[in-house]
Amino acid sequence: MLHTIPAHVMVGVVMTLFSFSTALVGLRLTIRIFIFHSAGLDDWTCFAAWMLNLAETVLLFQELSAGSGQHVALLSPEQVQQALLMEYISILPYIWCIGFVKASIVIQLQRTLPTHNNMRKLCIFMSITIGIVTAAFTVVFLLMCMPPNGYWDLSKRAECHAIWTTNFAFLAVNVATEVALILMPIVIFGKLQLRKADKLGLIAIFTLFGLVPITNLLRIPAIIYMEQDPDMTYSHQTVVGYSRIELNVCIICACLPTLRVPLARAWSIIRRQSQNNTTLHQVPREGVMVLNRVGPSSNMASLED
């Protein structure tokens, strides 16, 4: 079931994606800094997003060690409080990681696609929108309860606004901005002076970013179940896992356009070297065949002379 996935399964998926996103970010920075010497703001915002994702991954294990993913009846009040505290601390890195990834993609669009007036205005509008959304939801989530420490300290009897509504509002805005980022480059690809294969490659890469809103939509059953289930520490872990998956998928998709050209060049070099090696291995056999054909006739000719 999508709303309840065992913690060990979710951790395995998250760590696999985290390893992959880490490798791609490292490869991206290596290529941009040491090979092309052209590292830009889009690379550094992507690296900042990865750092926040690293913090989220560490907090995931902190939450698990505190009791998240276990049934609340099996936990002491102190463990429940610690698990909720770790959950609260993870809110800020999560929201800002998403913001930095989206900012990296917008900056990358400005850097790689034609900067005519409409595209420039659209990128500026998206940058402002992402900044406002990130700041607004940071405040909303951090002040979800009054006093704020009532979020994890249940003895405070804090007044908390509807968490269900806040989660769905953030999810809706998140999906809307992600769909906009997918459509932005695809709309103007027809105007680019590129080969058809290159255009199709870029479209395929940006279309892969569609995995991000899909991940968000998969989280809906888990959010609904979490709001209805009194076993909060057990049901909430699935939502947390989907959030970590979303961050890693975002970072992976943000790195793919940057790595398209270097990886294509590397692949062409490997293919060329492979073809050259095949040709070199074939030459001696052809030479032997030629000698076998020419050798006897030339010997006979010399004997006849």
Description:
This protein is an all-alpha fold. It has a single domain (7-272), classed as Rhopdopsin 7-helix transmembrane proteins. The protein contains nine helices and two strands. It has helices spanning 7-35, 41-66, 77-89, 91-112, 117-142, 163-188, 196-208, 211-228, 232-304; strands at 145-146, 159-160. The protein is globular, with a radius of gyration of 27 Å. Residues 285-305 have low confidence and may be disordered. The chain crosses the membrane at residues 6-29, 122-144, 164-188, 200-225, 245-263. Residues 27-265 form the Rhodopsin domain. This is Rhodopsin domain-containing protein.
Properties at a glance:
2 strands, 305 residues, two-stranded antiparallel sheet, Rhopdopsin 7-helix transmembrane proteins
The total count of helices amounts to 9
Low-confidence stretches: 285-305
Indicate the proportion of strand residues: under 5%
**Distance, first to last CA:** 91 Å
Return the average pLDDT rounded to an integer.
82
Largest sheet: 2 strands, antiparallel
Q: In the CATH classification, which architecture applies?
A: Up-down Bundle
The whole-angstrom Rg is 27 Å
Report helical residue fraction.
over 70%
SSE pattern, N- to C-terminal: HHHHHEEHHHH
Sequence of strands across the biggest β-sheet? 1-2
What is the number of E strands? Answer: 2
Output the structural class: mainly alpha
Tell me briefly what this model is.
The protein has 305 residues and is mostly helical. It has helices at 7-35, 41-66, 77-89, 91-112, 117-142, 163-188, 196-208, 211-228, 232-304; strands at residues 145-146, 159-160.
